[in-house]
Amino acid sequence: MAIVNMFEAKSSLSRLVDDVESGRESEIIIARSGRPAARLVPITSQPPVDRRIGVARGKFVLPDSIDAHNDAIAEMFYGKSE
User: Fold this and answer.
1) If I label 56, which of 7, 10, 21, 74 is the partner at 20 to 30 A Cα–Cα?
2) Mean pLDDT, range 31-35, rounded to an integer
3) With contact defined as beta carbons under 8 Å apart, do 63 and 43 qualify?
């Protein structure tokens, strides 16, 4: 674990990122006035992309008209109308 001051981190950020990406450093602590302020670590894996569109594709069949059975459904809820 390396500790670098803020000035060095600003002037050599690219090299520091390369160091953690390549595994030369497991993490780099960035200090401000000698006190740890931030930690630079590699991202080990990307979170899975949550794909919601089409998630139920092929799970059921839609009727040609969704209004074709409105009367039957209303009867189930309210009973037979007179």
Assistant:
1) 74
2) 94
3) no
